[in-house]
Amino acid sequence: MGRGTLVYGTPTGMRFAREKHFSIGSQSMTDVDAQLQDMDGAGIDLQVIFPTVFLQPMSEDILFEAALMRSYNTWMGKTGARRPDRLKWAAIVPLRDPRLAIEELHRARQLGATVVGLFGTVGETMLHFYSFLAGGILERHLAPGPRFSMLVAASRHS
């Protein structure tokens, strides 16, 4: 492993995950019924699901990374659609390409995303950098004004 390498493991493959009160299917969102049962047991009515795997760039190839994000959003759209009254989810968009980000933002909204995950930077570039403003991501497609928090409501915007 070289400089800048990140190693991700599947937490549900660890012994610790098997010892938890919640099933592996619930932890991995592969068993929606188990997830809902666990939520009921914990007194949770609604869950907003946010992926942590995209906290770091997944590839130097922007188009490949965008495809991974589209795949995640498609999967979450299908998973969340099983119980949209209880399972909400955050879309992830490829901000390294503002045009693709706008396209994916609109597609994810159609799939049922409630929010979009945003971070203060895209790589080493701050979100207020001209390429994001010129693409209109922050002005036309997300909440107007100085609300640059991690999660910005996407369902209110066209």
Keywords:
single chain, 158 residues, alpha/beta, 7 helices, 6 strands, 11% strand, globular, disordered C terminus
Number of strands: 6
* Count of separate DSSP helical elements: 7
Query: What fraction, in percent, of the residue positions are helical?
Result: 25-40%
Gap from first CA to last CA = 43 Å
Supply the number of structural domains: 2
How much of the sequence lies in strands comes to 5-15%
Rounded radius of gyration (Å): 17 Å
Structure in words:
- The structure is a single chain.
- With 158 residues, this protein is of the alpha/beta class.
- The chain is globular, with a radius of gyration of 17 Å.
- Helix 5 (98-111) links the parallel strand 2 (87-91) and strand 3.
- The protein has seven helices and six strands.
- It has helices spanning 15-18, 24-27, 32-42, 62-81, 98-111, 130-134, 137-141; strands at 47-49, 87-91, 115-117, 121-122, 125-126, 151-153.
- It has a four-stranded mixed β-sheet.
- Helix 4 packs parallel to helix 5 (98-111).
- It has two domains: 1-45, no CATH class; 47-153.
- The protein starts with 14 loop residues before the first helix and ends in a 5-residue tail after the last strand.
Summarize the structure.
The protein is α/β, with parallel strands linked by helices.
Set down the secondary structure blueprint.
Elements: H1 15-18, H2 24-27, H3 32-42, E1 47-49, H4 62-81, E2 87-91, H5 98-111, E3 115-117, E4 121-122, E5 125-126, H6 130-134, H7 137-141, E6 151-153
Parallel strand pairs: 1-2, 2-3
Antiparallel strand pairs: 3-6, 4-5
